[in-house]
Structure formats: C-alpha cells, structure tokens
Amino acid sequence: MFDWLNTAFNFFINLGAPAMMFIIITILSLFVGVKISKSLEGGIRMAIALTGMSAIISLLTSAFGPALESFVESTGVELSITDLGWAPLAVITWGSVYTLYFVFICIIVNILLLILKKTKTLNVDMFNIWNLSVIGLLMMYYSGDNLLFTSLFIALIYAFMLINADVMKPTINELLGYDSSNITTTAHPSLLIAPVVFVFNKIIDKTLPSIDKYDFDAEALNNKIGFWGSKFAIGVYLGVFIGILGRLTAEEIFTLAFTAGVALELFAFVGGWFGPAIEPLSNGVTRLMSERFRGRKLLIAIDWPILAQRAEIWAVANVLAPILLLIAIILPGNNALPLGGILLTVLAPALLIITKGKVVRMTIIGTILIPLFLWGATLIAQFVTETSKAMNNFPDGLSENTLISSIDSDPIEKMLAILFGQAIETVDISLIIYSVIGLFVYILLFLWYFKAIKKQNVEQYGKTEDE
User: Fold this and answer.
1) C-alpha dihedral over 388, 392, 397, 399, to 10 degrees?
2) Nearest-CA neighbor of 84 among 402, 401, 332?
3) Are 357 and 219 a contacting pair, CB within 8 Å?
4) Which of the pair, 202 or 295, is modelled with greater confidence?
5) Nearest to 314 by CA among 203, 447, 220
6) Pair 450, 159: CB distance under 8 Å
7) C-alpha to C-alpha distance for 27 and 280, rounded to whole angstroms
8) Contact 153, 105 (CB under 8 A)
C-alpha cells in the first residue's frame, strides 16, 4: 500500500510544477463550489503562468550568465549571486505542495481572527501567499523540516498582515480617494516592512521636521522621465552597464541590453497572469466565508497594485533603482547583483502609505532600508539555488556553480526564519537565545506600531477602522 502511494506521489511530483498546479488548482476550485469550466480555466492559467515565467528566467539567464562571469572577473566585485526578482520564488513555491498547506493555515487564521473580531479583513489575495510560503520553506529547509514551528511562525506573520490591513485602511482611503463605505484594502506581505518604515518616518519627524517643504510633484517627475524610466529602459541601462564593465563586444552589449529590456517588461506582463489564475479559487473561498460572516462589514484585501495609481510609487522606484545598484556594489556582506528586482516595488507601497506620498521621505527611508533587502537576497541564495535544482527549475544559461536569488519582500521575516531554523536544527543555546530575542523584538515592534497607527487614525480621521 505504502509503496503504491509513494509511486503515485513521485509520479505526481515528476509531472512538473505547471502540470501539478493545474491539477491542484482545478480540484481545489471544484471543492469550494466553483464551476468546472472556471476551475479548469484557473488551473490552465496557473500552468501557463508558471511555464511562461520559467521561459523568461531562462531567456534572461542565458543572456546574462556569461556576461556576469565576465563582470566579476574584470571588476573584482564579488557579486556572484544573480538576482532574478520574485519570479523564481513564485515558481519554486507554487511548484511545492507545501504552499497549499500554508494557504490552508492562512485561511484558518483569517477565519479565527474574524470570529474573535480581532480583524475586519478578509484576504482574498491567495496568490501572494507564496511570499509566506517562501518564509515557511526557508524555515523548514534550515530546521530539518520542522512543520510545527514553521506553521506557528506563518500563522503569526499572517495575523500581523491582516491587522496591518485594518489599521492602514484609513490612509489607503485618503490616498486613493475612497469614501468611508469602501471595503477595499490590501494585506500584501510586502507591507510587513511598514513598522520599520514607520520608525524612520518618526525619526525624520523629530530630526528633520522641515524636510517636507522640499517635496515635489511625483506625477510631474514621471512625465518628465517618461519612457526613460520604464522597465524597458531600465533593463537596457542595466545590460549596457554589465556589458561595459564585463568588457563585452559592442554586438554582445546591444544583445544583452535589449534582452534585459524585454525580460524586465515580460516579468511584469506574465506576472499579471497569476492573479486571474487564482481568481476562481479566491472567489469560491470568498463566497463561502462571506456567507459565514453575513451581516458584518468586512474589508476585502486584494493585491498591492490598487496603490499603483499613485505616481509616487513609480517615481521613487525609478530614483531608488540606481541607488540600489550602487549600494549593492559597495555594501559589505552583500553578494547579490540587482537584476530582476532592480525596481523596488516590494518596498515602495509601504513607503507610500506610511509617509502618505511624501517623495523625499520615501527616497530617504528607501535608501536606508535597501541593505536589508540585499542582505536578505544574499542569505536565501543557497536555499533558492538548491531548491531550484531539486525541482528541475534551475535556469538555463547559468553554470552549475552559480547562485541565484531574489531581491524581494520580507527580508526581516526571512532572516528570522533562517535563525529559528538553525536554532531548531542545531539546538545551539546561543542561537536559541538570539532567536527568542529576535522574535520578542519583532512582536514588540508590531504591537507598538499598531497602537501608534490606531492613535494616529483617531487624531487624523476621528475613528479607527475597527470601531
């Protein structure tokens, strides 16, 4: 019996991530009452999105692999980790059955907090739970597959995400012009950096109170930059920069530049396929949960691009891109070369909400926090590389010794996951003490932040979102 189950499981895994997720998404959608046609549509969209993202990664790495080796040799800069943005992490996580387990954990946490009236947010952005899956898989990787502690850690982080969506809602209403009856918010994992942004915003309040008079119109800046700040153009700049420093020929530099421009644009385009892929399943879960909590006003949390209409996000992302590259070259302890994550859209939304769109503050705080994201990418490189190889998703065009990673959201949570994982696996007293202290500070920071934001909401808007 067990041999048969093992054979069946291995056959399922060996189908590959796209086929595996097609089957899983389709079955789960049917289970929550979605029509068969919509269930199949969601499963097929997910399979196509994963296939497309893998193809773009291979395109990018095939072009940049030799160039990056030449870059390291000619400059002596030890940026030996290739940043492929969020794409490889999404492929890894959605190709793992554990992601669905973490989805289950998150749904249970959301239901419990709604029942206990600790949150008003119903998070329907299920696709981006892959961000939490990365953290969970990291902890399991370093802890020897300790599922209990991993589950508790994910549950804690997800609870913070939901409460954060509650307290951010009044500011989101102000920024987007929503009235008080609007129920749209976002619980995106990238907003977990908000308490740290809040700390630095408070420091600016105390030390540089007059800095806001130097602020400027972000939309006017974006209009002036135009095409030259687009993903196409930033990819071209990056290709030219790497090509020149890598001492490539003119023909090779042009090829590299245009390939990078195409790849960065395609990352965003194909990335947009994941949302519709998970939408039928999200709608099914939303319908079930809304029926359970009928009569209560629920906030519906969707993906962070609801904030993308604010010009400040794109202005600051463009300004931070060259700063990110410069800091990457000189930062001690960093080995990641920004590539796929060159546009810090994993940081800009939190900067926007906490500073309320003040571009100068957003730029200053963003620059201060860049090292966190670079160190995070460096620390997870071994995990990303080994997991990609184990799942047969390692990109073409890179040598076997190359490390890949992602300058992506939640660097603090990833660091805590690694620290806890190592402490659990080794039972090292010093690591256990550091882990406990780190978690205590992390929780304390969030509790202080929630209290401060609620007080701020009362002062500025007259009420909090949970009143």
Assistant:
1) 70
2) 402
3) no
4) 202
5) 220
6) no
7) 11
8) no
- The Cα-based distances of 402 to 42, 78, 139 in angstroms read 34, 12, 23
Q: Is the pLDDT of residue 445 over 70?
A: yes
**What is the number of residues in the chain?**
467
Q: How far apart are CA 75 and CA 71, in angstroms?
A: 6
Q: Report the distance separating Cα 239 and Cα 254, nearest Å.
A: 8
- Type of residue numbered 274: F
The side-by-side arrangement of strands in the sheet containing 81-83 is 336-337, 81-83, 403-405
What DSSP letter does each residue of 189-232 carry, written as one string? GGGGGHHHHHHHHHHHHHH-TTGGGG---HHHHHHHHGGGGSHH
Tell me the residue type at 378: T
450 three-class SS: helix
What does residue 186 show for φ and ψ, rounded to 5 degrees? -140, 140
Which residue is listed with tokens 């931070």?
Answer: 320
Mean pLDDT of 97-101: 83
CA gap 452, 444 in Å, rounded: 12
Locus of tokens 């990819």: 235
Give the mean model confidence (pLDDT) for residues 322-331: 88
Instruction: Please report which helix (H) or strand (E) contains residue 166, including its range.
Output: helix 147-176
CB-CB contact of 410 with 135 (8 Å): yes
- Residues ≥6 apart with Cβ < 8 Å to 192: 157, 160, 161, 164, 409, 410, 412, 413
pLDDT tens digits, 155-180: 999 999 999 999 999 998 888 887 77
pLDDT in tens, 337-357: 887 777 788 898 899 999 988
Nearest to 59 by CA among 262, 296, 327: 262
Listed in sequence order, the DSSP H helices in 356-428 are 359-379, 381-390, 411-426
* pLDDT of 14: 58
